[in-house]
Amino acid sequence: MNISDIAVPEYVEVDADERLAKVRSIFERENPKGIVVTEDGEYAGVVGEKQLIRSRMEDDTKVSVVMKPAPKVDRHEDVRETARLLVEGDVKIAPVYEGEKLYGIVTVDAILRAVLDSLDAITVDQLVSEDVIGVNEKDHVGQAINRLRENGISRLPVLNDEGRLVGVVTTNDIVEFVVRDQERQGSGDRAGDIDRMLDLPVYDIMSNPAITATPAETAKDVVARMFDSDVSGLVVTPEDDDGLVAGMVTKTDVLRALTFTEQESMDVQITNVDLLDTTSRAHIVDSIEQVARKYAAMHVIHAHVRFHEHKEKLRGTPLIQCQIRLRTDEGQVAGSGEGYGSEHAFHVALDKLERNVLEVKGVNADEEYRGQLLRKLGEL
Predict the structure, then answer these.
(1) Where is 34: in which H helix or E strand?
(2) Please, what's the largest Cα pairwise distance for the chain?
(3) How do residues 238-284 score in pLDDT, each as one tens digit?
(4) Which of 26, 59, 121, 320 has its CA 20 to 30 A from that of 186?
């Protein structure tokens, strides 16, 4: 299947200098799937509905401030390659071109709906992100916002004092709460209102009950549940205890799975690839392969490298967080770290990854040695 089968013409083109007030009115009036932004007649980026909703910028702000750069997709491109481009670009929509002519747009939801029936071969335990960041129900909304921003994520499972799952809070929950409260209060000075909102407990705005999935379920089932519930991710809980949190699974995780290959060469995806500065994709792939080969062979089926930029800078260089996650024939292994610039951050994360890889290999080697010793003893 190629993208021409699922690209849609439900988009609006606007200039980068257009005011947000006009763009918001376009969404309300025409309800497009997305907006394609141009600058001097050339493609510049995209704006999705949720991006616009989450932005509390003034109406006179230019749309270029909230747009995101998204890769241009050829209308004859393969679905797998398009999925990779969306994941690496960390975007939900992308423009589709036929030569130099804008043909339409493609969305994450459109791709997942098109391949839904083929997702029954993938299970949640192959997709789940186990390094979950959560929040206590008594924590303040301001603390939840900081946690979301610092980790570059959009949802947090909410736990009670016993560590049991009681709900979920997302960036959308927070924005909708703020918007509703401001509309109810009317116009005026918002400084005190915002402070009051940030001090509220997460319990007041979380979604409850949390929509969950179990490790044995298929990707087809959980994606259908996401569509039915109009959410982008589910909390993963063990089969025998839906109060414990085992991980998270999102539409992006499923989209990423579409690009898995069974080839001998490593399948590597880089989210926020535009943050690469003094390093390259080739260097990243080679470095991960060296770690995987070190001391004992480990076959990496898929590698995901994610960069996230913080606001802090040192002599103009931003603080970057890097997360590396490997899906291997010996299970999942990960490493993360921070540094100024993507190259520094990557190597800090790579060092952590190497230590974790060696730990996995050491455990396996110990078990193999133990098995050999027991066989020898059995022969005696």
Answers:
(1) strand 34-39
(2) 87
(3) 988 888 999 999 998 898 888 764 444 457 878 888 888 888 888 89
(4) 26
